[in-house]
């Protein structure tokens, strides 16, 4: 029953939504990585609930680094980040203690943990546990940036509303990733952003919720990263992305659209560009044989509509065994994807940092550690 992942670098999560604190322990980090707490704070802002399109639970979400950093740089020993819970309203959950919310983890956690789980606010299964992932992700994203690797995600689709696609051309894609940096509801097109915002607000007003698709891109990944068979780049990243509550699908490159294509439409012709091997198209999303080929990675993640909705729903009282109608109270996100996009970036960055360390060794990050500076 571990909440841990990683080969060379290990991430381990702890905490519950209504407990004292939540957090992450990272082991196997290179020493000497500069920690930019101000930038970590900016990343946390992207996940924080804001406005009508998010839960009304307001938390300061200030990451406290309690070990593993000395004089602003990683020591290389376990790094622990703590985030205090302050704004809980546990009474929202007491009336419905034995009435599981459809499509949340209430029933499955009850069975697995024999009723001993902290059921308040989804406990360890709450989307809240993604806050420490974002704090940790800020470290991995900065490690990648120092190596010229950029990761970014936009809200690509909600129902029939679709955002502009990521560009194939690398300089244009880089500019697009940059444009997403300071957005809360991150879209490439202003009109799509407005329409998606309105669609979520509409659902919120009706006590309902929305899902959608997040599209991510990574540029600057060197070719040759990834392990054969079980530790392909796809397997490792999908494992991480499926750990995010409400994620129900992940695809790479053209993904499920390959079903409609012939080989002649799906293959990426190989070319040479300024001495670098590149492909003319990128249907395969930068990965062949589970190994990066030097092209941008393209990943799509589908996030289901938030399970906690304010409409009456059928459930069962687990104490009496009687069918019942559930009417929830409390504060919930009418959509998750705008808050989850930074979680997706964070986990992709962690997965790639782990794979890069496996490929090149921990000293590959050495350039990050200018000896004698400071
Ligand atoms: C950032 C984030 C916020 C979330 N907010 C809510 C919420 O307010 N209410 C809710 O019912 N589920 C929320 N979820 C989703 C649940 O945590 C998730 O659906 C639940 O753990 C069950 O997992 P599953 O949907 O993967 O089966 C959120 C998830 C994330 C990642
Ligand atoms: C608090 C956050 O989101 C929570 C995620 C969540 C869930 O079930 O995932 C349920 C709600 O928790 P509570 O009922 O305790 O307020 C959300 O508010 C957060 O993400 O920081």
From TrEMBL:
<comment type="pathway">
    <text>Metabolic intermediate biosynthesis; chorismate biosynthesis; chorismate from D-erythrose 4-phosphate and phosphoenolpyruvate: step 7/7.</text>
</comment>
<feature type="binding site">
    <location>
        <begin position="124"/>
        <end position="126"/>
    </location>
    <ligand>
        <name>FMN</name>
    </ligand>
</feature>
<feature type="binding site">
    <location>
        <position position="52"/>
    </location>
    <ligand>
        <name>NADP(+)</name>
    </ligand>
</feature>
<dbReference type="InterPro" id="IPR035904">
    <property type="entry name" value="Chorismate_synth_AroC_sf"/>
</dbReference>
<keyword id="KW-0028">Amino-acid biosynthesis</keyword>
<dbReference type="GO" id="GO:0009423">
    <property type="term" value="P:chorismate biosynthetic process"/>
</dbReference>
<dbReference type="GO" id="GO:0010181">
    <property type="term" value="F:FMN binding"/>
</dbReference>
<comment type="function">
    <text>This reaction introduces a second double bond into the aromatic ring system.</text>
</comment>
<dbReference type="GO" id="GO:0005829">
    <property type="term" value="C:cytosol"/>
</dbReference>
<dbReference type="GO" id="GO:0004107">
    <property type="term" value="F:chorismate synthase activity"/>
</dbReference>
<feature type="binding site">
    <location>
        <begin position="304"/>
        <end position="308"/>
    </location>
    <ligand>
        <name>FMN</name>
    </ligand>
</feature>
<dbReference type="GO" id="GO:0008652">
    <property type="term" value="P:amino acid biosynthetic process"/>
</dbReference>
<keyword id="KW-0288">FMN</keyword>
<dbReference type="InterPro" id="IPR000453">
    <property type="entry name" value="Chorismate_synth"/>
</dbReference>
<feature type="binding site">
    <location>
        <position position="289"/>
    </location>
    <ligand>
        <name>FMN</name>
    </ligand>
</feature>
<keyword id="KW-0057">Aromatic amino acid biosynthesis</keyword>
<feature type="binding site">
    <location>
        <position position="47"/>
    </location>
    <ligand>
        <name>NADP(+)</name>
    </ligand>
</feature>
<dbReference type="Pfam" id="PF01264">
    <property type="entry name" value="Chorismate_synt"/>
</dbReference>
<keyword id="KW-0521">NADP</keyword>
<dbReference type="InterPro" id="IPR020541">
    <property type="entry name" value="Chorismate_synthase_CS"/>
</dbReference>
<protein>
    <recommendedName>
        <fullName>Chorismate synthase</fullName>
        <ecNumber>4.2.3.5</ecNumber>
    </recommendedName>
</protein>
<keyword id="KW-0285">Flavoprotein</keyword>
<dbReference type="GO" id="GO:0009073">
    <property type="term" value="P:aromatic amino acid family biosynthetic process"/>
</dbReference>
<comment type="similarity">
    <text>Belongs to the chorismate synthase family.</text>
</comment>
<feature type="binding site">
    <location>
        <position position="331"/>
    </location>
    <ligand>
        <name>FMN</name>
    </ligand>
</feature>
<comment type="subunit">
    <text>Homotetramer.</text>
</comment>
<keyword id="KW-0456">Lyase</keyword>
<keyword id="KW-0274">FAD</keyword>
């Amino acid at each position: 029953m571990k909440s841990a992942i990683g080969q060379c670098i290990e991430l381990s999560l702890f905490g519950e939504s209504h407990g004292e604190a939540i957090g992450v322990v990272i082991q196997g980090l290179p020493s000497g990585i500069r920690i930019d707490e101000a930038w970590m704070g900016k990343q946390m802002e992207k996940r924080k609930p804001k406005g009508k399109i998010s839960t009304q639970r307001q938390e300061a979400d200030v990451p406290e680094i309690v070990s593993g950093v000395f004089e602003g740089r990683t020591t290389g020993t376990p790094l622990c980040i703590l985030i205090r819970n302050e704004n809980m309203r546990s009474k929202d959950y007491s009336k419905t203690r034995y009435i599981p919310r459809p499509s949340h983890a209430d029933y499955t956690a009850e069975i697995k943990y024999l009723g001993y789980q902290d059921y308040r606010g989804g406990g360890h299964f709450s989307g809240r546990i993604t806050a420490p992932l974002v704090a940790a992700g800020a470290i991995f994203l900065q490690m990648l940036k120092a190596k010229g690797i950029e990761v970014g995600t936009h809200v690509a689709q909600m129902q029939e509303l679709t955002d502009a696609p990521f560009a194939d051309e690398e300089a244009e894609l880089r500019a697009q990733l940059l444009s997403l940096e300071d957005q809360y509801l991150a879209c490439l097109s202003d009109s799509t952003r407005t329409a998606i915002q309105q669609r979520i607000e509409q659902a919120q007003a009706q006590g309902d919720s929305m899902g959608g698709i997040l599209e991510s891109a990574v540029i600057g990944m060197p070719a040759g990263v990834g392990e054969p068979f079980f530790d392909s780049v796809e397997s490792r990243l999908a494992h991480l992305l499926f750990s995010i509550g409400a994620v129900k699908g992940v695809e790479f490159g053209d993904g499920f659209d390959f079903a409609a294509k012939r080989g002649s439409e799906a293959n990426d012709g190989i070319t040479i560009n300024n001495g670098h091997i590149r492909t003319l198209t990128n249907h395969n999303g930068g990965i062949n044989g589970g190994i990066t080929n030097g092209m941008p990675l393209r990943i799509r993640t589908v996030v289901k509509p938030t399970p906690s909705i304010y409409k009456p729903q059928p459930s069962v009282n687990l104490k009496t065994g009687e069918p019942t109608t559930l009417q929830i109270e409390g504060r919930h996100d009418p959509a998750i994807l705008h808050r989850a996009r930074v979680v997706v970036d964070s986990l992709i960055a962690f997965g790639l940092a782990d794979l890069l360390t496996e490929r090149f060794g921990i000293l590959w990050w050495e350039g990050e550690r200018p000896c004698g500076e400071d």
